[in-house]
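Hi there,

I know you've been waiting on this one. I reran it after we fixed the sequence typo, so this is the corrected version. Both the input and the resulting structure follow.
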Amino acid sequence: MRTEAIIKTEGMRTLRQAFGLVDAGKFIMLKKREPFDYTEWHTYLWEDRTVSALFKGAQEYEEGR
């Protein structure tokens, strides 16, 4: 199990790689500014993926660690 510090570090690295440094910072500020309802967000997060596809992705991720 990863610690919170490791998760934060990996999350920031992922944001920087995906968006670049400036846009990663903008993304974080946007998320901090708006009210965030995890339950509502989670409802739409994977709506375009099947349970089988999510499971397969999780298995592949775990095997690659």
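Quick highlight: Helices lie at 4-19, 21-33, 38-45, 51-64.

Best,
R. S.
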